[in-house]
Prior knowledge:
This protein is an alpha/beta fold and 455 residues long. It is 48% helix and 14% strand. The longest helix has 32 residues, at 109-140. It binds adenosine-5'-triphosphate and magnesium ion (MG).
Amino acid sequence: MDTKARILIVDDEVELRRAAEKILAREGYRVATCATAGDGLAHFEREGADLLITDLMLPDQDGIAVLRRAKELRPDIEAIVITAHGSVETAVEAMRLGAYDFILKPLDRAVLLKTVTKALEKQGLAAENRALREQLQQRHGEDALVGNSPAMLATKKLIRQIAPTDVSVLIQGESGTGKEVVADVIHALSQRHAQPIVKISCAAIPETLLESELFGYERGAFTGATGSKPGKFEAAHGGTLFLDEIAEMSPALQAKLLRVLQDGRFQRLGSNKDLHVDVRVISATHVDIPAAIEQTKFREDLYYRLNVIHVELPPLRDRREDIPLLADHFLKKYAARMQKNVAAIAPKAVEQLLAHHWPGNVRELENAIQRALAVATEQTIRNFQLLSLPAAASSAARGPAGPMVAIPLGTPLEEAEHQIVTETLKQCGGNKEKAAKLLGVSSRTLYRRFAAKRG
Length: 455
Ligand SMILES: Nc1ncnc2c1ncn2[C@@H]1O[C@H](COP(=O)(O)OP(=O)(O)OP(=O)(O)O)[C@@H](O)[C@H]1O
Ligand SMILES: [Mg+2]
């Protein structure tokens, strides 16, 4: 039992308060005492406690009120009420309200300790149960992936099939479509779930650092390497390595990665000792890799290694059936977390969500719900403020209502043009005339450029 548990005693009898404090503090509990209901609750709101011991008869309010309010603030708080012989009925009432037990006056040391231990044990068990339940849910995995659209159902089915195998998976999708969630679910449903899933973003760090992060290094491998450090490959041994933004990896590193994937062997930087690891690789990207291969930015042979199984996550606007479901999921999740009593989204507001273009996909929806909850004053959300356009995308956007392509700043013009042409064509169902009109060029020009690009 954790003897560091924090106990708050609320009792107006100074003798009793002191006696109880002494008994409990001697056992190692961290004890705070207050003489009135008001002080007790103020303390509880400020500091919290694992266990509340309150007298039923207090000068300002009765102990029942204290109990009720404490339970409101923290539903899993355990409480013990202290009562005189005469008011056992009130004590029983307190138990109905969720108190764990009651203790009769005068205070008996053994009874007090036993009741406190049991109440805290129950609290510990409750907390443990909660943790187990959460773990189970994670283990269940698939539940983390909300969505019933045909695309999501197909994705879930594919995940179930491939998760238990060790094949490499490449997840492709726009930003915020849930690539990382999918990676987590695959790992959770795999035989490797007891081992870690180790994540690294290839976009966030400079090349040389990425290399040492991936493969680790020995002391003296480079200036500043004063010790040795295992890399992510070693950390993921027995588990899964998640390579995020894989398309951002430099050609030199791509070659190194390919070698590891081919023979499962590598060396830490500054060492020539071969290391073997057993790692499943899941990678993710928002980039169209076949196009990157065409532009010789990505190695084709590496692509085939990584892309044994391909999971494509469609943008949210292409699976609108998922929007109400996701909205409801986030509403429940964040209402609980923010302790907001908001239970529903009005049909008009759902329509707003359905009509929005969601350039930021599920992440944008999640943010929209959080924002709406934060300002909500009633039980139903009636309006969403959906102004959000990510700064990077807004320049490429034709106003918030139309479809968009997100082109990172610094993209070569030729490539940007190619993307815009391709997407516009797609949008026009392959109708070159229509696409040319939208783009403000003749259809011959369009055809020439497109054909040239395809080579
Ligand atoms: N199907 C889903 N069910 C529940 N939550 C989801 C789903 N898809 C995405 N989310 C949530 O949306 C947010 C964005 O998801 P995630 O980080 O997986 O996206 P991503 O594709 O990796 O984006 P990026 O390319 O920007 O890294 C996360 O908070 C995630 O929990
Ligand atoms: Mg991600």
